[in-house]
Amino acid sequence: MPQQPAPSDEIIPAAPASVIHELKYIDLLLLKTLAETESLTKTSARIGISVAKASRMLSSLRKLFNNELVQRCGPRMIATPELERLLPDIRASIKSLGKLFEHPLAFHPADIESRLVFACTDNAYLALLAPALKRLAEEAPRLQISVSELDDQTLSKLSSGDIDFILGQDFLARKNDRFRHQRLLTCPHCVVVRRDHPMALAHPDGRITAGDLRGFRQVLPIIHRPSGFESPTRLSMNLATAEAIRLPYFIAGFFTILQNDCFLAAPLAVAQRLSNWLPIELLHFDEGSQFLWTPEILWHERTDASPLHQWVRSIVCSAAAAANTP
């Protein structure tokens, strides 16, 4: 019987770190997304991690591959030739790994460490987003929320991923087939005056007509739409009123009418929330064809299947409906 060779006492050199490093699925996802967005901020938001964590991961991957992987060019982070060479294999690996799971992984809000950006006006924030913040903070304590103003770049930012959601009313936004939308409210407008206003004292039942508005001037907020155009807030198409002042903000109008006999036309949902804190009266105007406030939540189709975005959308929709139910 042949004699077995004696075990060798030779010490096998340790494998280099680049060999024993456990390359994770999220590492591949970060490289793929970073090459596509050319932005670490957009990448971190899209894959659901903080910018700081994404930066640490990129630093580790640079050491692993012994390559910069991306190079800064102004505000952009451009893939190096080495990363460009790796991208086909990275994409193929992500696709193959995705097939291993018949069902999506469980989503745990408490584990989320990310930032989401909403774009809306101040009245939409008050009536639609603010009611959801308590639950979002309780269930996802490391989720950060940012709010930006609406301007003529809002829809472009939604397309690029700089904005995650838009809260507002804009039929022009629906023309983009890649945007999704869901209505949050259908709400009439009311007339808002200070509590001791002559109209409030003359109509204790809270109902007024067009004739009652004569002799009083209107504070007119100019509402910005997601598509960039602006429009004043009026009660009815057929009602002409004298203007006192135009404002770029909505909630400032509520404070303006506390100082004079002017009135404000406002969505009932917004006025009801502010009536909890301000000495105002809400008067109902029943004449003519009233304008309705029908705000929606808009998002890009890219985030349709994102568990984080689905969860946040559901909370905003349910919280807005619950907070504004009579």
TrEMBL record:
This is HTH lysR-type domain-containing protein. Residues 23-80 form the HTH lysR-type domain. Keywords: DNA-binding, Transcription, Transcription regulation. It comes from Sutterella wadsworthensis HGA0223. One of its GO terms (molecular function) is DNA-binding transcription factor activity. PROSITE patterns: HTH_LYSR. InterPro entries: LysR-type_TF (IPR050389), LysR_HTH_N (IPR000847), LysR_subst-bd (IPR005119), WH-like_DNA-bd_sf (IPR036388), WH_DNA-bd_sf (IPR036390). It holds the Pfam family HTH_1. It comes from the Bacteria. Belongs to the LysR transcriptional regulatory family.
